[in-house]
Amino acid sequence: MRERYIDLIDQTYYFPQEGFDVQDDYLQFHKVDLQHLIQTFGTPLKLTYLPKIGENINKARRWFHDAFENVGYNGSYFYCYCTKSNHFSHVLNEVLKNKAHLETSSAYDIDLVRNLFKNGKIDNKIRIIANGFKPKQYTDKLLELIKDGFIHIIPILDNMMELDAYSGFDGEELSIGVRVAAEEEPNYQFYTSRLGIRFRDLIPFYIEKIKSNPKLKLRMLHFFIDSGIKDSAYYWSELNKCLNMFVELKKICPTLANINIGGGLPIRNSLGSNFDYAYVIEEIVNKIKTFCDDAGLEHPNIYTEFGSYTVGESGANIFEIIGQKKQNDSELWYMINGSLMTTVPDVWGLGQRFILLPINLWGQGYQRTIIGGLSCDVSDYYNSEVHINQVYMPKIIGDQKLYIGFFHTGAYQDSISGYGGTKHCLLPSPKQIIIDKDENGKLIYEVFAEEQSPDSMLKILGYK
Ligand SMILES: Cc1ncc(COP(=O)(O)O)c(C=O)c1O
Question: Which residues does ligand 1 sit against, CB inside 6 Å?
Fold first, then answer.
């Protein structure tokens, strides 16, 4: 009878597979002996396997390089890392060791860039794509960076008002980009992304406001399709619209030489994932080439800003099952020694699935379970995989210990859960005011804490 957990996996997926193997009933992640890790450090724990970051960066470069060769593409390819997906210094170190450029999302990101420069991790030739809806603090910091000699910074206009921040630019010339607002997938709550400029506004805006300013050079068209790069009718149709826009703009804007297709390259969220990266990338490159060839235009340089793809597959969260609760005939809870809401919050916030596997007891029988977190919140659970609306785990016999891991959790989870006081997009905690009444009923105000500073954030992230 084949009814061990390992048989279930063997029958369902190709296994072992990249990053995952079992030795003597214990799971290995990129050949790291997880049992040893647990014995050494205990649980719950979060791990980051740094070599995977460079591996993924270089794989993507290779796919683009091969696609360029296969279709005869003449532009260059630039890999930028979207810092918001994981800001930790050890991650940025690895990204920069692999010669990636950067994409920023907020003012404090520019403090991070300054810190990297001060510590010799980057020079002023690094390419920085500055995205996001930009308060004055962000545009001011960008302009200071440009003034200080960073020669390849491209602020991407998220909206038309943003131009006001640059229109009085007092240097020689300023390279800028524009982000086009993509239409969202039909199942979203709104039609058009709030990020970027409407299609119909772009060309009149360029003619009236950018072209007329001799210091401003529009060099990049940026688009990001929020649901990511997929081989789907929706993705290809959005890409076509953006490429049409590129062609129309390029006809009247000779400096437009770069196209930025954003992030969204998927990661494996199941042992059954089978995304054909090389094929999809070649299709994208071929489409850009075809649009340009048909219009008699040079091939633009292609930029990407992969966040999840760069760092997602390097991370894992490991827990121990510390108890079982059978709440009715069909629902058996495996309680972990931590919380999913506070360590992998996208599970709760977005219904995100990760690869979930036991670390040990692979030779034992299995049963259907629900994974329960320690917080009191009803939503702190995990009960379905990508392919089935169920989770199976080895049976625990007697006083056996079972450890489980959520894998490929390296992107966004730390910042969204606020690891140590960090924040999504490095947007600081606000000033906190306490309001009370004195004995006469008069309101009294006290500043409990000032707005979080860049230094406090950078310290948590390992830069100070
Ligand atoms: C402008 C922009 N670029 C890149 C990314 C990174 O996306 P991903 O992590 O899916 O690669 C995002 C994510 O929200 C984004 O908004």
Answer: 82, 85, 103, 131, 224, 228, 262-265, 305-309, 411
